[in-house]
Specification:
The chain has about 100 residues and is mainly beta. It contains no helices and six strands. The strands form two sheets. A four-stranded antiparallel beta sheet has the order 3-2-5-6, with no helix packed on it. A two-stranded antiparallel ribbon has the order 1-4.
Length: about 100
Protein backbone atom coordinates (compact mmCIF):
# COMPACT_ATOMS: atom_id res chain seq x y z
CA UNK A 1 0.00 0.00 0.00
CA UNK A 2 0.98 3.59 -0.59
CA UNK A 3 -0.67 6.13 1.69
CA UNK A 4 -0.44 9.82 0.83
CA UNK A 5 -1.40 12.66 3.15
CA UNK A 6 -2.63 15.75 1.34
CA UNK A 7 -2.51 19.15 3.02
CA UNK A 8 -2.69 22.79 1.95
CA UNK A 9 -5.27 22.07 -0.74
CA UNK A 10 -7.11 25.38 -1.02
CA UNK A 11 -10.23 25.99 -3.10
CA UNK A 12 -13.64 24.60 -3.95
CA UNK A 13 -14.04 21.31 -5.80
CA UNK A 14 -16.94 19.13 -6.92
CA UNK A 15 -14.62 16.26 -7.88
CA UNK A 16 -10.98 15.32 -7.60
CA UNK A 17 -8.82 12.82 -9.47
CA UNK A 18 -6.01 11.29 -7.43
CA UNK A 19 -3.20 9.42 -9.17
CA UNK A 20 -0.31 7.48 -7.65
CA UNK A 21 2.62 6.60 -9.90
CA UNK A 22 5.81 4.68 -9.31
CA UNK A 23 8.54 5.55 -11.75
CA UNK A 24 12.18 4.95 -12.43
CA UNK A 25 14.60 7.86 -12.05
CA UNK A 26 14.48 8.21 -15.86
CA UNK A 27 10.78 9.09 -15.51
CA UNK A 28 9.56 5.79 -16.99
CA UNK A 29 6.31 4.87 -15.19
CA UNK A 30 6.18 1.23 -14.03
CA UNK A 31 2.93 1.51 -12.02
CA UNK A 32 -0.02 3.89 -12.05
CA UNK A 33 -3.35 3.88 -10.25
CA UNK A 34 -6.00 6.61 -10.38
CA UNK A 35 -9.31 7.20 -8.69
CA UNK A 36 -11.92 9.90 -9.07
CA UNK A 37 -13.69 11.26 -6.00
CA UNK A 38 -17.09 12.86 -6.54
CA UNK A 39 -18.29 15.13 -3.75
CA UNK A 40 -22.09 15.25 -3.24
CA UNK A 41 -21.86 19.05 -3.20
CA UNK A 42 -18.99 21.39 -3.91
CA UNK A 43 -16.47 21.02 -1.08
CA UNK A 44 -14.34 23.90 0.16
CA UNK A 45 -10.84 23.27 1.40
CA UNK A 46 -8.48 25.56 3.26
CA UNK A 47 -4.87 25.24 4.35
CA UNK A 48 -5.92 23.49 7.60
CA UNK A 49 -7.57 20.56 5.79
CA UNK A 50 -5.67 17.27 5.75
CA UNK A 51 -6.81 14.19 3.82
CA UNK A 52 -5.32 10.74 3.36
CA UNK A 53 -5.77 8.22 0.61
CA UNK A 54 -4.33 4.73 0.22
CA UNK A 55 -3.66 2.80 -2.97
CA UNK A 56 -2.99 -0.94 -3.07
CA UNK A 57 0.16 -1.83 -4.95
CA UNK A 58 -0.20 -5.34 -6.35
CA UNK A 59 1.61 -7.22 -9.07
CA UNK A 60 4.35 -4.65 -9.50
CA UNK A 61 7.69 -5.94 -10.77
CA UNK A 62 10.70 -3.71 -10.31
CA UNK A 63 12.97 -4.22 -13.33
CA UNK A 64 16.15 -3.65 -11.30
CA UNK A 65 17.47 -2.59 -7.92
CA UNK A 66 17.80 1.14 -7.41
CA UNK A 67 16.04 4.37 -6.58
CA UNK A 68 12.39 4.77 -7.61
CA UNK A 69 9.99 7.66 -7.08
CA UNK A 70 6.39 7.65 -5.88
CA UNK A 71 4.57 10.61 -7.46
CA UNK A 72 1.12 11.81 -6.34
CA UNK A 73 -0.95 13.88 -8.76
CA UNK A 74 -4.14 15.79 -8.00
CA UNK A 75 -6.21 16.58 -11.08
CA UNK A 76 -3.19 15.80 -13.25
CA UNK A 77 -0.78 18.13 -11.43
CA UNK A 78 2.09 16.91 -9.28
CA UNK A 79 1.27 17.37 -5.59
CA UNK A 80 4.24 15.55 -4.09
CA UNK A 81 6.86 12.88 -4.56
CA UNK A 82 9.20 10.72 -2.53
CA UNK A 83 12.17 8.55 -3.51
CA UNK A 84 12.63 5.04 -2.17
CA UNK A 85 15.23 2.33 -2.63
CA UNK A 86 14.56 -1.15 -4.00
CA UNK A 87 17.21 -3.63 -2.94
CA UNK A 88 17.70 -7.32 -3.48
CA UNK A 89 17.05 -9.59 -0.51
CA UNK A 90 20.29 -10.84 1.01
CA UNK A 91 21.04 -14.48 0.24
CA UNK A 92 19.50 -16.87 2.74
CA UNK A 93 21.94 -19.06 4.58
CA UNK A 94 21.00 -22.60 5.30
CA UNK A 95 22.00 -23.67 8.82
Amino acid sequence: WVTAWIANLVGTLSEMELTCRIQEKSGHVIFSSATKIQFPNEASFDNTTTMAFSTPIEGIAFPRNGIYTIVVLINGEEAGKRDFNVREDPPKTIP
